C-alpha cells in the first residue's frame, strides 16, 4: 500500500512539473491609439481624438503553471498618442488647426492566461506604461480670403514636463499559436491614468488597440 501511495505521489509531482513550461519570445505589430480629453468645464464635453496609427515592438516571457493556466510578462516600445483636426469657415474666412500628440512609451504588460486549447488562449492583465518622451505638433492654416494675408504655422514642442509619466491600462486579449512557435495576438488596452500633471486642469487618458505577430522559442 505504501509503495502504491509513493508511486501515485511521484506520478502527480511528475505530471505537475511536466505541465510547467517557460518560453521566451519576440513580438511586433500595429497599434491604434486614441486620447480621451475631459476639460471639466460646463460648456465642454469629453471628447476622443482621431486615432494615431503606429507600431509596437518588444520581447516576452511566458510561464505555463499548468495545461490551462499561465502567466506572461513583456517589455514593449510604442509611440502612442492621438490627433485632432479642427477647421471652421465662414464666407472668405477660414481656420484649420491640426494637432498631434506623441508619447514615446515603454510598456510593461503583465497578464494571466487561460488556454482554451493548446494553441488558443485568452488573457487579462494590465499594461504599465512609462512615458519616455512627449511631444505636441501643431499645424495652423488660416486666412481671410485676401492674397498675402494667409497664416501658416508648423510647430513641435516638448511637453514632457506637463505630462504624468505613468500610464496604467488594464487589458483583455487573445492569442493563437502554431506548433512551430509562431503566434498571432490582439489586445485592447483601456487607459485609466490621468496624464495631465496640473491639478484641476481636466483629465486626459490614452487607450490603444494592438494587433501583432511574434515567435516563442523553446520550452523548459
TrEMBL record:
Membrane spanning residue stretches: none
Keywords tagged on the record: Signal
InterPro entries according to UniProt: Beta-barrel_OMP_2 (IPR025665), OMP/PagP_B-barrel (IPR011250)
Record Pfam families: OMP_b-brl_2
Coiled-coil annotated residue ranges, if any: none
Signal peptide coordinates: 1-19
Highest rank taxon of the organism: Bacteria
Keyword flag Signal: yes
Residues covered by the Outer membrane protein beta-barrel domain: 19-195
Keyword hit for Signal: yes
Name of protein: Outer membrane protein beta-barrel domain-containing protein
Amino acid at each position: 500500500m505504501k509503495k502504491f501511495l509513493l508511486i501515485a505521489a511521484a506520478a502527480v509531482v511528475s505530471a505537475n512539473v511536466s505541465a510547467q513550461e517557460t518560453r521566451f519570445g519576440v513580438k511586433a505589430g500595429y497599434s491604434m491609439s486614441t486620447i480621451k480629453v475631459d476639460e471639466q468645464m460646463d460648456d465642454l464635453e469629453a471628447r476622443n481624438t482621431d486615432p494615431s496609427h503606429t507600431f509596437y515592438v518588444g520581447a516576452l516571457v511566458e510561464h505555463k503553471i499548468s495545461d490551462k493556466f499561465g502567466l506572461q510578462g513583456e517589455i514593449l516600445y510604442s509611440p502612442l498618442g492621438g490627433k485632432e483636426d479642427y477647421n471652421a469657415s465662414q464666407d472668405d474666412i477660414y481656420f484649420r488647426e491640426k494637432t498631434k500628440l506623441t508619447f514615446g512609451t515603454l510598456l510593461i504588460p503583465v497578464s494571466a492566461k487561460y488556454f482554451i486549447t493548446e494553441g488558443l488562449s485568452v488573457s487579462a492583465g494590465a499594461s504599465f506604461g512609462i512615458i519616455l518622451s512627449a511631444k505636441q505638433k501643431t499645424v495652423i492654416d488660416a486666412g481671410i480670403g485676401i492674397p498675402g494675408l494667409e497664416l501658416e504655422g508648423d510647430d513641435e514642442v516638448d511637453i514632457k514636463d506637463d505630462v504624468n509619466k505613468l500610464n496604467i491600462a488594464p487589458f483583455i486579449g487573445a492569442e493563437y499559436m502554431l506548433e512551430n512557435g509562431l503566434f498571432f495576438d490582439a489586445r485592447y488596452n483601456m487607459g485609466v491614468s490621468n496624464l495631465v500633471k496640473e491639478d484641476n486642469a481636466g483629465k486626459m487618458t490614452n487607450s490603444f488597440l494592438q494587433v501583432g505577430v511574434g515567435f516563442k522559442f523553446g520550452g523548459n
